[in-house]
Amino acid sequence: MNRSLSFIAILALFLPAACNSAHPPRIGNAAPDFTIPDGSKTVALSQFRGKPVLLNFWATWCPPCIQEMPSLVALQKQLGDKVTILAVSEDDDDAAYKQFVKDHNVDLLTVRDTKRSNELYGTFKFPETFVIDRDGKIVRKFIGAQEWTSPEVVEYLQKL
Predict the structure, then answer these.
(1) CATH number, position 50
(2) Does residue 110 form part of some domain?
(3) pLDDT, position 30
(4) Other CB atoms within 10 Å distance of the CB of residue 46
(5) Which end of the chain has a smaller Cβ tally under 10 Å, C or N?
(6) In this predicted model, which residue has the larger pLDDT, 16 or 118?
(7) What's the average model confidence in pLDDT over 99-119?
(8) Residue 121 in contact with residue 131, Cβ under 8 Å?
(9) Residue 128 lies in a domain
(10) Which of 56, 67, 131 is closest to 90 using CA atoms?
(11) Angle, CA 22 vertex, CA 152 and CA 63 arms, to 5°
């Protein structure tokens, strides 16, 4: 019986620390600005101020990223100009990036980032997506592949 009580006491010590991870440290803060020149265009996050942004960090070599890309494309078509989806590829290989965009009909705003702007966000696993409100504040973070066209996500983004 004492073992059970000891285990529960130890568990109680660690649970509050684990619960803190539900609120990532950047939530509620200004989204770090960046400018990415990728050869064909230059994109600055600040140019989208005044409109909600879904900032997605991804890579062509990432299976969950590949899995969620059609959903991101469908979401952009569904929401039109109400929300900007900015998909930032962390690929080193420009040819692989361009081929992926072509083969998968990625017709949303995407750039290849060689400067690693994802590090400004503390992101090192992909995909990770940040929801940024009209004022440039991070309001939500998604880790891993999502079904972006689910009714809950669409409704949430439309309310921004």
Answers:
(1) 3.40.30.10
(2) yes
(3) 94
(4) 11
(5) N
(6) 118
(7) 91
(8) no
(9) yes
(10) 56
(11) 65
68-93 burial: b if 16+ Cβ within 10 Å, else e: bbebbbebbeebeeebbbbbbbbbee
d(CA 108, CA 69): 10
**Residue 10: per-residue pLDDT:** 38
Q: How many domains does the chain have?
A: 1
pTM: 0.82
Q: What is the residue range of 144's domain?
A: 27-159
69 assigned to some structural domain: yes
Rounded CA separation 81/61 (Å): 29
Mean pLDDT, residues 48-75: 96
Question: What pLDDT is stored for residue 13 in this prediction?
Answer: 40
Going from the C-alpha of 51 to that of each of 17, 54, 84, 157, the distances in angstroms are: 34, 10, 7, 11
Flag the least confident range among 53-62, 95-104, 111-120: 111-120
Q: Which residues pair with 112 in a beta bridge?
A: 89
Query: Tokens in use for 112?
Result: 């290849």
91 part of a folded domain:
yes
